[in-house]
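Lab notebook page, bench 4
Experiment: in silico fold of construct C2
Operator: M.H.
Input chain length: 418 residues
Purpose: comparison with the prior construct
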Amino acid sequence: MQSKTKFGLPPEIKYCNKCNVINQRPTSTNEYMHDKFTKQIPIDFDEDNICYACKSVDKKWSGEIDWKEREKELIDLCDKYRNFKGPYNCIVGGSGGKDSSFQSHILKYKYGMRPLTVTWAPHIYTDIGWKNHRRWIDIGGFDNFLFTPNGKVHRHLTRRALINILHPFQPFILGQKSFVPQMAHLFKVPLIFYGETPSDYGTKLGNLKQFSNNINDSHPGFTLDPISSVKIEDVKLGGDPISYHLDQGFTLNDLKPYLPLDINKINESKIETKFLGYYLKWVPQENFYYAVDNTGFQVNEKRIDGTYQKYASIDDKTDGFFYYTSYIKFGYGRAMSDSTMEVRNGHITKEEGLGLIKQFDGEFPITYEKDFLDYVSMTRDEFDKLCDQFRPEHIWTKKSNRWELKKTPWEYFEKNIK
């Protein structure tokens, strides 16, 4: 008898023959429609068991992409807005991490742009996250707007997202996506730069250069118009329709920061969006070195729970629980996320990546356990029981009162690759 699946995931578990990623790994979804019934769009595997992310990243290194021509396209794009009236001719969202530091600095100092940097605050800043944010501004040399959402609303939405869809990071994702276009419109900035192309992580887009303006012609997680076809009271935040939050005493104004800018305002303002990673070879580890040299970026003092590295996603105390809950729902944890990208970019071998997954993936994020559980008003026992409700039967089995993956990547390759 076949085990029950959840979230629309493939019933047969596979791992990519090149990078080790699991085929249960979801690509982005329309978070404004996300509830417990949502069917995810998993990463695509070809007939040779190679994931779409590997094929996408391979193009960076194979010679298929003419990077000089792509850079010329970037220079032409910058020239188009170089003489734009106003203090800023582009906008970059970020935290002062390695990627936003690289992005904003190279645009300003190599390509002569005038970026406004904007930040949607983390749930709970880490000490190193706050220091890197200040270094980004003070050493990198940028104007920055830091927006901290209403704490009562944010905690409410985070708890609801955890209970409904085991996705405590969703309110941050919603805010981060909506905030940048809102600020571009407010300050009349015509051009938004985002970071890497989503295809680097396995998301298929209709246009690799930019977000789509139409939800029907691209991936549902990367459109600037995710809600215009839905009544506002039916739009979901934290897995609940907005009508639920209104019944809890919140107002539509309380929830506005999480909602996307009206697509008509985007079109009227002629705001363009571009992925910088389309024009420049985007390599996360190289971005790290660049940020250290140019904005004073510093790493965490010790490796991060659930993985082996100490330089990526280190600004929010809830980050580890985003990756841990992903591991529960999809068998895709933080060490797998980090190592598969480094395998694709040739920094480590597939075998080394497999060893790191075996050693660290699924490790409980104990460092900030108390901060997180206090934030969502749960005990550890309540959190563990909630997680167990979201474990898909085809991914997990319980042996001697201990949860185990039914098919680990090392067991899979032992059996399937001779």
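Observations: The chain has a mean pLDDT of 95. Strands lie at 90-93, 115-120, 144-147, 191-194, 236-237, 240-241, 272-275, 396-399, 402-405.
Next step: discuss at group meeting.
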